[in-house]
Design brief:
By secondary structure, this protein is of the alpha+beta class. The protein has 2 helices and 9 strands. It is elongated, with a radius of gyration of 16 Å.
Length: 191
């Protein structure tokens, strides 16, 4: 259940990487995330089965300077949009773990890119920034695969978020044992 906010953050990182991949070198590039096509998915393992779910990106706007590898902006995920396919589980996730009524946004704010994004073809980079979730900010560096074609970018990333370490409750009980980490997969597209 805590995986959803984490997934969102990862999606934000991917979006930032896409911005980096713009074909014009030497000048700042402004990119908008295509929120209708981009996906933030999470996977949370437990003893009996694995829970899969997704979140929706609310907004995403990034500016990238390929000459300095500086990146700025925000990608905002709607914490309350997290769904896992079970109303009861989702209700508990929003009320007890994410507290999405109190913390409605999950935000990734990138600040630098390590590596070079090719104007055409594939590139692998690392995007560093702050991941804000559940009222706290965490430094994170995401591995991002960027595919550039005809001035448009697709970015993908996979990473793991230690949600319990980051202050969210573990939903485990006597009968159910879930991981204290959640896997996030993001695919981001630029418009």
């Amino acid at each position: 259940m805590r995986s959803k906010p984490l997934t969102f953050l990862f999606s934000i990182a991917l979006f930032h990487a896409l911005l980096m991949a713009a074909p014009t070198l030497g000048q700042e590039i402004a990119l908008d995330v295509d929120i209708g096509r981009s996906t933030v998915e999470f996977t949370l393992a437990d003893v009996l089965h694995t829970v899969h779910g997704h979140f929706k990106i609310r907004t995403g706007a990034i500016r990238f300077d390929p000459s300095t590898n500086k990146i700025s902006g925000d990608v905002v995920v709607d914490a309350a949009s997290g769904e896992s396919g079970s109303e009861g589980r989702d209700r508990r996730m929003h009320k007890n773990i994410l507290e999405s009524g109190r913390y409605p946004d999950i935000v990734f704010s990138p600040d630098r890119v390590d590596g070079t994004v090719a104007a055409q073809g594939a590139s692998d980079v690392r995007v560093h920034g702050l991941f804000r979730i559940h009222g706290a900010a965490h430094e994170i560096t995401l591995p991002v695969h960027v595919q550039m074609a005809d001035g448009k970018a697709t970015a993908t990333t996979h990473f793991t978020i230690p949600y319990v370490k980051w202050g969210m409750k573990n939903p485990s009980n006597l009968l159910l044992r879930v991981s204290d980490k959640v896997d996030i997969d993001i695919t981001a597209y630029t418009r």
